């Protein structure tokens, strides 16, 4: 069966609904808020919205703990509001992608409530249950991503259940065909509602190694990915749902490597359309450190170039890249790897140029298009379960990192950096809500907000708008080959795209220093600027801090 590939020409915008726009003034963003902002998104030029989970949920992990897959949580609105949003988006030719969280559910989900009751009811085998050791030890040493063991004892069933994330997020048992059927049914339901695709939460974790081998580091966050039946399960889902219903899919794939990602996204294999890799997001992490993702170093730009180029090359003709620097789990790139003070506009647009110049589908995360920054809150002001759990694990229990160093790392990379309310204007609560928001607004909203950016001479929004328009107009961005230039240069990210006779050069200085890279243009006589974040006379002048541009080489 033929599948449509609209997503290859698309730019996708991620909405984190809790923090996007509150319309009924309860301090929480809602579906009506997304609908209200459709014209804004249309102006930006995006083609589809991926909405983080809005299903009924106790919100232990901000909706990534689903209690009922068929109900919109009242905090976000009603099922009718979702119908309205889908219709309104479609009327403006914007597609809707929902978040598919099916590695685990909430412990409040009726399936789990039934499952924990006994070993012989229709839901008994919906989750990963295991007996305790003779002294009630956990079945093995797997750790939860949010700190502590990945197993929790259940009194009523007298067994342990597995959870890769919070104890309120029990992992589903995909070995059970009934689990898979139940999930496919749910997918059919949302397709009937009109949605166009899925972003699949930790989809590479759905198959578990049933030997449950111990991990090297006890109780560290080293979840098992890419289990023995992963490809089989994903292929089945593709054949049962994605292909027959013609739905787009992008899977979160934390352990996928450039060398093996094609196994998930090669169209011939009929699994997924795209995956989100993690590799390029780890270039500021000290490898193998006991403090895991909180052990930071300066971003290694050479590594960034190598990793991204590897993905470009490896998926060419056997897959399709999902391009991103930002999402609800990632800190703001302008604060993390750029300079959110002196070079706010320049560094935001430099990273955007590098990303949107590549082959694949670019993803823009809410607020990225105006260069929203990481706030520097006090520890007590953060709310994310991962941050809190990891604080307990690393600072309090294990004592391998001091509170101060942990907080420094939080300011750089914690997930909450991306979750502050969207900054619409410089009025109360940044125009997000009349009421106190569920999570503190970044105090820089008086300086950084949509209203101000749109009228600024250095508008990050306008720059994104232009990049997105180029994506729609220029075949070379979609189909052109990719070649990395100056691979060893520690600060300049430059590459060439080529389609037939047409040649483009994408160039960015990802540092605060000036660099002379005239050698890049030795063979260039005639050219035109496609886009640039600073006015410049000639292409050969040295690149100023975070300066970036794309040129078309005419001769
Ligand atoms: C994914 C989500 C993240 C969530 C986790 C558990 O990584 O993006 O926000 O906490 O899965 O669902
Ligand atoms: Ca609300």
Automatic annotation (TrEMBL):
Pfam families (alphabetical): Alpha-amylase
Q: Which InterPro entries match?
A: GH (IPR017853), GH13_cat_dom (IPR006047), Glyco_hydro_b (IPR013780), O16G_dom_2 (IPR045857)
Every copy of the Glycosyl hydrolase family 13 catalytic domain together lies at: 14-419
Gene3D superfamilies annotated for this entry?
Glycosidases (3.20.20.80), Golgi alpha-mannosidase II (2.60.40.1180), Oligo-1,6-glucosidase, Domain 2 (3.90.400.10)
Top-level taxonomic group: Bacteria
Q: Which UniProt keywords apply?
A: Glycosidase, Hydrolase
Q: Which family does it belong to?
A: Belongs to the glycosyl hydrolase 13 family.
Protein name as catalogued: Oligo-1,6-glucosidase
């Amino acid at each position: 069966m033929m599948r449509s590939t609209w997503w290859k020409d698309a730019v996708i915008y991620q909405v984190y609904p809790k923090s996007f726009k509150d319309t009924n003034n309860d301090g929480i963003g809602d579906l009506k808020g997304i609908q209200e902002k459709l014209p804004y998104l249309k102006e930006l030029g995006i083609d589809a919205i991926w909405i983080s989970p809005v299903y009924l949920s106790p919100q232990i992990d901000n909706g990534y703990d689903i209690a009922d897959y068929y109900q919109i949580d009242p905090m976000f609105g009603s099922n009718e509001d979702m119908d309205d949003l889908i219709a309104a988006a479609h009327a403006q030719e914007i597609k809707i992608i929902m978040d598919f969280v099916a590695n685990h559910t909430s412990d409040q989900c009726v399936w789990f409530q039934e499952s924990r009751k006994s070993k012989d009811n229709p839901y008994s085998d919906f989750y990963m249950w295991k007996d305790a050791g003779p002294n009630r030890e956990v079945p093995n040493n797997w750790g939860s991503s949010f700190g502590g063991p990945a197993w929790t004892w259940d009194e009523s069933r007298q067994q342990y259940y597995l959870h890769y994330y919070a104890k309120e997020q029990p992992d589903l048992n995909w070995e059970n065909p009934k689990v898979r059927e139940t999930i496919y049914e749910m997918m059919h339901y949302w397709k009937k509602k009109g949605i166009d695709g899925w972003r699949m939460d930790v989809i590479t974790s759905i198959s578990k190694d049933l030997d449950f081998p111990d991990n090297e580091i006890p109780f560290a966050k080293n979840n098992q990915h890419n289990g023995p039946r992963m490809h089989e399960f994903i292929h089945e889902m593709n054949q049962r749902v994605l292909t027959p219903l013609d739905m787009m899919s992008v899977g979160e794939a934390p352990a996928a490597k450039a060398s093996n990602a094609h196994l998930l996204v090669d169209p011939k294999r009929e699994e997924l359309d795209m995956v989100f890799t993690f590799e390029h997001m780890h270039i500021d992490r000290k490898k193998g450190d006991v403090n895991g993702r909180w052990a930071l170093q300066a971003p290694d730009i050479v590594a960034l170039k190598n990793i991204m180029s590897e993905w470009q090359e490896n998926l060419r003709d056997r897959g399709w890249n999902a391009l991103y620097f930002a999402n609800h789990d990632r800190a703001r790139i302008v604060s993390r790897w750029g300079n959110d003070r002196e070079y706010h506009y320049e560094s935001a647009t430099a990273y955007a140029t590098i990303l949107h110049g590549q082959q694949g589908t670019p993803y823009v995360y809410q607020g990225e298009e105006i260069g929203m920054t990481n706030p520097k809150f006090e520890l007590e002001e953060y709310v994310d379960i991962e941050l809190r759990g990891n604080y307990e694990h690393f600072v309090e229990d294990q004592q391998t990192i001091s509170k101060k160093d942990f907080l420094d790392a939080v300011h750089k990379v914690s997930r909450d950096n991306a979750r502050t309310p969207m900054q619409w204007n410089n009025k109360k609560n940044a125009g997000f809500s009349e009421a106190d928001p569920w999570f503190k607004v970044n105090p820089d909203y008086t300086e950084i907000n949509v209203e101000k950016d749109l009228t600024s001479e250095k508008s990050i929004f306008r720059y994104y708008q232009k990049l997105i328009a180029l994506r729609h107009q220029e075949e070379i961005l979609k189909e052109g080959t990719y070649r990395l230039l100056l691979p060893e240069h520690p600060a300049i990210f430059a590459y060439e795209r080529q389609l037939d006779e047409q040649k483009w050069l994408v160039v960015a200085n990802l540092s605060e220093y000036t660099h002379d890279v005239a050698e890049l243009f030795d063979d260039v006589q005639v050219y035109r600027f496609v886009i640039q974040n600073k006015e410049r006379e000639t292409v050969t002048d040295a690149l100023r801090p975070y300066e970036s541009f794309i040129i078309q080489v005419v001769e």
